[in-house]
Amino acid sequence: MTEILRILVSAFLIVPTLTEYTFPDYKDHPCVRDCKDNEAPRTCEYNFTIEWYHTITVHCRDCPFNRTDCFRPNCVPAEGTPRAILTVNRHLPGPAIQVCEGDHIQVKVFNHPDMSEGVSLHWHGIHQKGTQYNDGAEMITQCPITPFSSFQYRFVADNPGTHFWHSHAGLQRADGLFGALVVRQSPSKEPHFDKYDNDLPDHVIVVNEWFVNPTINRYAAHVHGGEKVIKDKSLLINGQGVYRKFKETKQAQETFYTPRAVFSVRHGESYRFRVIDNGVSACPITVSVSGHVLSIIASDGNPFEPLEVDAFMMAAGERFDFILTANRDVGNYWLMVQEVPDCGEGERKRLPQQLAIVRYIGASENEPTEPPTNVTTGKWLNSWNAESSDLRQPIVSVNSTDKLEPGFERSPDHTFYLALDTRILDDLLVHSPQTHPVYAFERRGVFYAPQINKITLMNPPSPLLFQHQDVPQDLFCDTESVAVNCSTEYCICVHRLHVAIGDLVELVVVDEGTHLNINHPMHLHGHSFRVLALKQVNISTTMEAVKRLDAEGYIHRNYDNPVQKDTILVPDGGYAVLRFVADNPGFWLFHCHVQFHAQTSMGLVIQVGNDEDMPRRPKNYPKCSSWTFSGYDEDQNKSGQRTCPSNGSSLQPIGIFTLWFYFCIGYEVI
């Protein structure tokens, strides 16, 4: 009898595996459509299964020697390097969500048991007004989704434009947990609708940095091993690229590579391309298409007046939309993404790059014969640390198509000066003053702690949105309330700025650039901001120097329809002046989008409103907190019998039955 019950339990456990592992990519989802005026919104449902997976698995068969094998179901060739990866539905990038403005998005995330770690998904660019609990910031708005459980995100796609989703837990974003999120508009609402012929789902481009081994290896070496240059990496375009060489035998002459991404265009037509930078490091990338001028029309989902350039630069978390007119001879042309100088590998300065192909319909299925166009002498948009010139246009040089909000030019209710820098000091992560003090190391072995206003952000023990009162108040601080001198001591707390609903908030973000010549792409959750000023002062500067410039009237704020963004690359040794209306109650992260800096807590929390202003908590919304043994509940079951699960909302129906059967029947017999 015992053996029979075990067999039955095993059979029931197999059923969900067979049904759930169909792994849709949702390319043919009914919500992927041309958006029409006066069309009723749709409900767009998705199932995401998160698991550890691998590139070049047995599913790839003879890839890349047989090229068609590289496109088999469950095959992730990447750039040819065999390594463990994190995937949603066994796709890299994960499935794209492409909907129309006003659609209702529902994503059920199932954390596979082999994950063995918690996860959360952030919908980068979606403000989540009214659904703040779906922002996906781990321990800010929600508890992590534990293995063998699920969590449903439900929100309205009310922020049109090019966005993306990604993990907001640990280093998972760098290992594969990311994908596109595009919210298109109907013709009457899209300001650039008459400027292009096509806005195709296949012309959404996700670029990401890619290491040859799991990111935790690189992170640990960077933080604890003194490795300052991140080596052995490449770039991927829509999860594809060329890096590793393959030969059928050691003696073989022919070399094979994994496939590149290909984008089809028809001669004489114009196309809207949407580019997403899921960068990991502090190195921006440039994007160009050989022989073609690009008309840039939007960034971070916010439209602006078109600007024609030869290339544009973007940093981790940024998105740019451009129009390409297919007016060259029918053929194949390189689309190139390349990291900028000063981000190469050691003395060789090898700049990671990746190539895709823009293929005119009717051209041969071959790679371009000409090398990629050298665009270093051409016209760029969003060039880092560069003075404005005819060839180098900063992002503040473009004008938004959205008019400035009334009252935006008045004196802000709050002006916060925020100094960014990487600092050398004894800390709680690497340099213990007792065993590994900073002064005992050479510069090469020192860890540079990334901080804002000399404070490291501490993740609270409970999510702030619905468990704010569960967090000890002495864990919160800001520059005024911190108890020690952060110039000489390591400061860590739940770094919070508190504003009222409706306040006009200005952030003067200063990259002091004292120790390292790197830039910080800063991303704000829950809001977009206007970029009123952006300028490099010197190779390095101080917050006090920028304050003096501001007080003396040398920082000019532009109110002539300044560009809107949610992610900005702050000049090294310079400043960015950002302004927004705090009209979205909640707890919102403002943090560096460099993966290692986010992991070492370079960020702060902006609290908009008070507890009574926060959204209603959905029924049975998960809670979590620290725990210390303090006795037993008085009403605890003292019979010694096992208690059957009573709330299986996070499990699949077949899983609920299986667990009930095992615990409530099988346990007694077995």
Helix-strand blueprint:
Blueprint: H1 2-20, E1 43-54, E2 84-88, E3 97-100, E4 104-111, E5 121-124, E6 149-156, E7 161-167, E8 178-184, E9 204-211, H2 215-224, E10 233-237, E11 262-265, E12 270-278, E13 285-289, E14 294-299, E15 302-309, E16 311-314, E17 319-325, E18 332-339, E19 353-360, E20 380-381, E21 392-393, E22 414-423, E23 449-452, E24 455-457, H3 464-467, E25 476-477, E26 491-499, E27 504-511, E28 520-524, E29 529-536, H4 543-551, E30 564-565, E31 567-570, E32 574-581, E33 586-592, H5 595-599, E34 603-608, H6 653-669
Parallel strand pairs: 1-4, 3-8, 9-12, 11-19, 16-20, 20-21, 22-27, 24-26, 25-26, 26-34
Antiparallel strand pairs: 1-2, 4-6, 5-7, 7-8, 9-10, 12-17, 13-16, 13-18, 14-15, 14-17, 18-19, 22-23, 27-32, 28-31, 28-33, 29-30, 29-32, 33-34
General description of the model:
The structure is a single chain. The protein is mainly beta. It folds into 4 domains: 2-19 and 631-669, no CATH class; 31-184, Immunoglobulin-like (Sandwich); 192-400, Cupredoxins -  blue copper proteins (Immunoglobulin-like, Sandwich); 414-613, Cupredoxins -  blue copper proteins (Immunoglobulin-like). It is 10% helix and 31% strand. The chain is built from 6 helices and 34 strands. It has helices at 2-20, 215-224, 464-467, 543-551, 595-599, 653-669; strands at residues 43-54, 84-88, 97-100, 104-111, 121-124, 149-156, 161-167, 178-184, 204-211, 233-237, 262-265, 270-278, 285-289, 294-299, 302-309, 311-314, 319-325, 332-339, 353-360, 380-381, 392-393, 414-423, 449-452, 455-457, 476-477, 491-499, 504-511, 520-524, 529-536, 564-565, 567-570, 574-581, 586-592, 603-608. The strands form 6 sheets. A 7-stranded mixed beta sheet has the order 11-19-18-13-16-20-21, with no helix packed on it. Strands 24, 25, 26, 28, 31, 33 and 34 form a 7-stranded mixed beta sheet that branches. A 6-stranded mixed beta sheet has the order 10-9-12-17-14-15, with no helix packed on it. β14 (294-299) and β15 form a beta hairpin. α1 packs antiparallel against α6. The protein is globular, with a radius of gyration of 26 Å. The N and C termini lie close together (8 Å). The model is unreliable at 1-20, 344-348 and 642-670 (pLDDT under 50).
